[in-house]
């Protein structure tokens, strides 16, 4: 069914055709009348009539193809207009996503949201997000969706010869029509059936901070139209990711101790509640231990050498303790010189082994107070194990703190041990 615009345009062309045809026909008739009544020879009149007939046919043919082309161009413009309206609607959806989610989604969730929207505008087989590593200029694959996403995420090589870096440095959309750049970086097993790639730099306040790379299965699959569309996409998704990064930084700052870069006490309770849920689910098979620790005689050290040395000592203690914990363990800083640790799957025996390991490490590693003076630190420990010493976060922490207080007391007989029911 034709649209009203196309029908109207067709009607105008037909009208113009009738008017021009009548006018030209009338001119031919008049010219023929005057030529036939002239004193020209028969041969000359015949040649003129033949020329008029040929010109008439050529003009009719030219006019036919002209009006056909006009109608075709108009239909194409209508199709492009409709296409652009659809694309604009999808781009508008990205802007609305920025308003609703930009300041409240983690980068991983934002990437999945954006990738699904991009796929509706410029289809892809695989989509990657490259971010610059902290403290260096190396672009690394942070997130991936689509086919071969696992292979891309497992890639640990150098990406500095790839398309993403080219887009990052130039600040412009880059196309790799036959994967000539990407084949310098990735193996055939990673690229598999992929044939073309396009890289979109994400720019915020004039600085490129990330790159999105799309891969497709058709060689030369990303044309000039794709580049134009992706440029429009980039202008809309760059603020999304910038806001998402800011949200993650704020969240990290809210859960991180600035002095030691360890999770803070708020993070401790969030993690502990999650671990306790697992331990309660698998009560016998999944023990859990909480450690409370502080630096012995820290107040005297802080007073003698100053707060700056005290801060360095706490950062040193955090590093040394963390080195002796298992990879699954979580070390956090509470207040002052106090540290809290969560030891998933750790029984009393396992936690005792970890405590001894920390003590030996601190004895063998001296803290440099000054160029001429060192200290060997001692740590006070208190441990509480689920469910023997408590079943909630508060119960376990209270027991661990009580045992740490006994450990740090020089007169241990003055520390009263209460039965479990009173502790809880």
Description:
By secondary structure, the protein is of the alpha+beta class. Helices cover 56% and strands 17% of the residues. The strands form three sheets. The chain has a five-stranded antiparallel β-sheet, sandwiched between helices. A four-stranded antiparallel β-sheet has the order 7-8-6-11, with helices on both faces. Strand 7 (330-333) and strand 8 (338-344) form a beta hairpin. The termini are far apart.
Question: What would you say about this model in short?
Answer:
The protein is α+β, with helices and mostly antiparallel strands. The chain has helices at residues 4-36, 42-101, 107-121, 149-154, 163-170, 188-191, 224-254, 265-281, 298-305, 307-324, 348-364, 393-408, 420-423, and strands at residues 126-132, 139-146, 174-176, 196-204, 207-216, 288-295, 330-333, 338-344, 367-370, 373-375, 379-386.
First-to-last CA distance: 78 Å
Order of helices and strands: HHHEEHHEHEEHHEHHEEHEEEHH
Q: Give average pLDDT, whole number.
A: 83
Instruction: Enumerate how many helices there are, as a single number.
Output: 13
Task: Indicate the low-confidence ranges by residue numbers.
Answer: 1-11, 75-83, 411-415, 419-424
Assign the CATH topology of the largest domain.
Alpha-Beta Plaits
- How much of the polypeptide forms β-strand, as a percent range? 15-25%
SS-derived structural category: alpha+beta
Q: How many β-strands, per DSSP?
A: 11
Spatial order of strands in the largest sheet? 2-1-5-4-3
